[in-house]
Structure formats: C-alpha cells, structure tokens
Specification:
Blueprint lengths: L3 H10 L9 E3 H30 L8 H26 L1 E3 L13 E7 L4 E7 L10 E3 L3 H6 L7 E6 L2 E12 L2
Parallel strand pairs: 1-2, 4-5
Antiparallel strand pairs: 3-4, 3-7, 6-7
Helix pairs in contact: 2-3
Length: about 180
C-alpha cells in the first residue's frame, strides 16, 4: 500500500487527465533537446546562408533557391518556437520503484487478446510517438485503459469497431 503522499504524486505524474500531454520520458526530453540544438545551431544557420546567397543573385520572384530556402527557414523557425515552448512546459517523468508491477507512464507493456494476437509498446508522451511503431501516447484509448493495471489484469479498450478485451502479460520499466 502506498502512502497518501506518494499516491498523490503518482496521480499527478503518471497519466491522470490533468497533465496528459505535458508528460515526457527522460529519453524523449533529451531527443527533443537534441533536435532543437541541431535546428538552431546547424540547420538554421546553413539555411540562412543559402537564403542570403540566393538573394544576392537578384530577382527573388523567379529564384527557386531563394523561395525554397526561405520557406524552409520559416518551417525551421516554427519548429524551433514549438520545441522551445514545449520543452518549457513539459514535465519529465522518471522511473520510481513505486511503479513496479503496475502500468504507469513510461512502462513497456505486453498484451494479448482473445485471438492470441500480442503487442508490445511503451506508454509515452505525445511528442515521443512519431517515427516509433512501438510507442503509444498516454492519451490513447489503449494507454488509458491500461493505466494502473497489473499483470494478468484485463483492460477493455474502446475502438471504432467496439470494445476489445486485452490481457496484460508483462510490464517493464527503463531504470
């Protein structure tokens, strides 16, 4: 049994609707910081040089290099603004021993349904799911159904075709 203080912290940090998408794993936070650093220190200066060079050639209205790189520069700036704001608002959730044995934010979860279909994925923040087929957002119906469950518990997941029952067969954490 967890003491009330730890329980309250877990309510806030691991998947309650109040914080939902503002959560991120330590690995995800580092990846976003790395992306921001790359965009700001390498990609943006390189693109700015290309825009300056293309502008020096004269007529900008028919200059494809200028138009393309100017558009790319706007996209880089938009992403940099998004990352800075997002990183400022994010709460990094790290593993705590109290999580062991239950599904919370950051867990690797193995599940199986009645047809014997198995899946393995990690429950992470919204910004971490892109380019990863084995990550799901904490806001997804699957993650919401699995939160606080233990091995051998069943979770009813609402899907477009109706409710589907999944059993938890394993839970692991990155420590």
């Amino acid at each position: 049994m967890l003491n009330p203080g730890v329980s309250a912290i877990m309510d806030i940090a691991w998947g309650c609707e109040r914080l939902s998408t503002k959560l991120i794993t330590k690995e995800g936070h580092e990846a976003l910081k790395k992306e921001l650093d790359y965009l700001w220190r390498e990609k943006r200066p390189d693109t700015t040089r290309k825009v300056t060079w293309a502008a020096s050639l004269g007529d900008r209205s028919e200059n494809a290099d200028y138009q393309y790189n100017k558009k790319l520069l706007r996209e880089i700036d938009r992403r940099v603004r998004y990352l800075r704001k997002r990183l400022e608002d994010m709460r990094v959730v790290e593993y705590m021993p109290e999580q062991e044995g239950k599904v919370f934010f950051g867990a690797w979860v193995d599940i199986e349904n009645e047809q014997g279909e198995t899946k393995r994925f990690r429950i992470v923040g919204y910004d971490e799911i892109y380019d990863r087929m084995d990550y799901i957002s904490i806001d997804s119906p699957m993650a919401r159904a699995l939160l606080r469950k233990e091995v051998d518990d069943e979770a009813m997941v609402q899907t477009p075709s109706g409710e589907v029952c999944w059993w938890i067969t394993g839970i692991e954490y990155v420590k």
